[in-house]
Amino acid sequence: MQHAVHYLETGSRDPYYNLAFEEYVLTHRTRGDYLLLWQNDNTIVVGQNQNTEAEINRPFVEAHHIHVVRRSTGGGAVYHDLGNLNYSFITDAGDRAALSMARFTQPVVEALQGLGLQAEASGRNDILVEGRKVSGTAQRLWGDRILHHGTLLFDANADMVAGALQVDPEKFRSKSTKSVRSRIGNIRSFLKQDMDMPAFWAYLKETLAGSGMVFDALTAQELAQVDALKAEKYDTWEWNYGRSPRFDMTAKRYWDGGCLEVGVSVSRGLITDVIFHGDFLSVSSLEPLTKALLGTPFRREEVCRVLERYPVADLFGGITREQVLDTLFSD
Q1: How far apart are CA 307 and CA 301, in angstroms?
Q2: What letter would DSSP give residue 56?
Q3: Transmembrane residues, as ranges (predicted)?
Q4: Which tens digits make up the pLDDT trace of 91-101?
Q5: Are residues 145 and 259 in the same domain?
């Protein structure tokens, strides 16, 4: 991001407020480049298409008073505490066909390398230092704007990260590592010269925003709208947990682009209800597609016709149309 970068802070550690703040900036500040740095205290943030109850360790979450909130981007569930720093880039999406994670992860990787760390982007959406995951990223589109955000595990409590999340054993079936704890790392432990979180925050702000940084703030009127969005959406059970009706058929498949789980109800041969869950890296809401599928005959070629009308890469990340169909119509 060259030229002026508007730098914003939420002034809060409340995850419901912070996600409302971020969404408000994406949907209302529709010109210019923005950088947000923010923190959530003691929170699990689930991806927009995940089944929340399946992702969290409910007794652990309740015992440790951990907030649970859904974000509006794809990917998997993550744990945030005050040893973790979140960043958000909001800017013009440009050519949608050429959308790439690298455009946004590269500046973060370079910032970490500037601290003498062996940082690299890896896999679908991770940043690693010496083979350990220190960051997970996700993005979403809004009109011609894009939000890209990520975590930075600086000095997080690894036991809390491991305890709060319900880990799907399938994810580790093909890997030699068997636990979340052994896969993640803290940036601070890799530093040659120690720094604390305020120093890291200041460094990141200067490095990511560059010389064109403009300190910005939302107006009182805008902040009132953030509060309203928090109350209407992020505070609600419907958004964070959502409906989990009983389906006639459920299927789950693991693809290179992520896990895809589908639930379908069929009456008289027609789809009456359908839901897609998973940690795939969608950048757009699945709602238009799921609505379009209602009333469609539950046959591969009919569902395929509906899918052809939608940008599958935006909705399912690296999972292809054929893979969506194979999941739905698996034997």
Answers
A1: 10
A2: B
A3: none
A4: 999 887 777 78
A5: no
CATH number at residue 146: 3.30.930.10
* Alpha carbons 88 and 23: distance in angstroms, whole number: 10
The residue with tokens 């930075």 is 152
Say whether both 187 and 120 belong to one domain: yes
User: What span, in angstroms and rounded, lies between the C-alpha atoms of 314 and 90?
Assistant: 17
Q: Is residue 180 very low, low, confident or very high in pLDDT (cuts 50, 70, 90)?
A: low
Check if the beta carbon of residue 147 is closer than 8 Å to that of residue 90. Answer: yes
CATH of the domain at 266: 3.30.390.50
Task: Choose among 231, 198, 208, 197: nearest CA to 148.
Answer: 208
Q: Are residues 77 and 211 in the same domain?
A: yes
182, HSE (Cβ side, Cα atoms, 13 Å): 6
Task: Specify the DSSP element, H or E, that contains 69.
Answer: strand 67-70
The tokens for 142 are: 């809004």
Q: In what order do the strands lie in the sheet with 213-215?
A: 119-122, 126-129, 132-142, 145-153, 84-92, 33-38, 5-8, 213-215
Range of the domain at 272: 249-328
- 192 and 60 in a common domain: yes
Q: How far apart are CA 185 and CA 195, in angstroms?
A: 16
CA distance 108 to 90: 14
CA 80 to chain centre: 12
How far apart CA 262 and CA 182 sit, in angstroms, is 30
Q: Please, are residues 135 and 127 in contact by the beta-carbon 8 Å criterion?
A: yes
pTM of the full structure? 0.91
